[in-house]
Amino acid sequence: MFNSFRLNSRLAAAVGALTIGAFAFSGSAAAAPLQLFPFIMTPPVQAAPPPVQAAPSDDEGTVAELPARLKRQIVSYASREAPGTIIIDTPNTYLYYVLGGGRAIRYGIGVGRDGFTWSGVQTISKKAEWPDWTPPPEMIARQPYLPRHMAGGPGNPLGARAMYLGGTIYRIHGTNAPHTIGTHVSSGCLRLTNEDVTDLYSRVNVGTKVIVLPMDRRADNSIGKRG
């Protein structure tokens, strides 16, 4: 009986110790939960990488480079015309602004395409900065998709400046397509880069004489018949 009492006492003590340990374990677990599987590593959280900025396109912000011969420059040019006269060398796609003393400012220009060149003498009848564009009826008939009117601005085909020639439909004007300088591309108008037309515009006045040389001897010398 004494042995049974000692066994029961030891069993009770063991159960008590286990209960106290369980309470202690549960208290510490509540304060700081244990990781059940410490051998499984949680990957560290990384910040999202900064957005990659797209590289600019090759032609973004670039300006068409004119060939050396078409760049604005002062050249030797013998002429009997008075200083301030404009002479259009149609075959060679040059515009000369006569300075006198055997010199002139030479600009590269774009001229009329085949069948649309003309020649003769006119005067500047009007000047306009960032002009509106209203295609003439003759041009609309050939190209019905053209707008009937376009407000002036960087996207306007007449560019930064325009000088109107007499009562004709022709103009000396700028262009937003500088790669066409030196080519035969227009319907008879004479185009310069926006930088060059702005320079020329500052030099001429209403009434300035403009001489347009023929493409060749067979050229039609009439004025204002083509659009």
UniProtKB/TrEMBL annotation:
Domain L,D-TPase catalytic as annotated: residue spans: 84-213
Active site positions, chain numbering: 173, 189
Keyword Transferase set for record: yes
GO MF term list: glycosyltransferase activity; peptidoglycan L,D-transpeptidase activity
Pfam families from the UniProt entry: YkuD
Highest taxon of source: Bacteria
Cell wall biogenesis/degradation listed as a keyword: yes
Keywords noted in UniProt: Cell shape, Cell wall biogenesis/degradation, Glycosyltransferase, Hydrolase, Peptidoglycan synthesis, Signal, Transferase
Signal peptide per UniProt: 1-31
Pathway named in the protein's UniProt entry: Cell wall biogenesis; peptidoglycan biosynthesis
GO BP term (any one): regulation of cell shape
Family: Belongs to the YkuD family.
Protein name: L,D-transpeptidase
Organism from which the protein derives: Bradyrhizobium sediminis
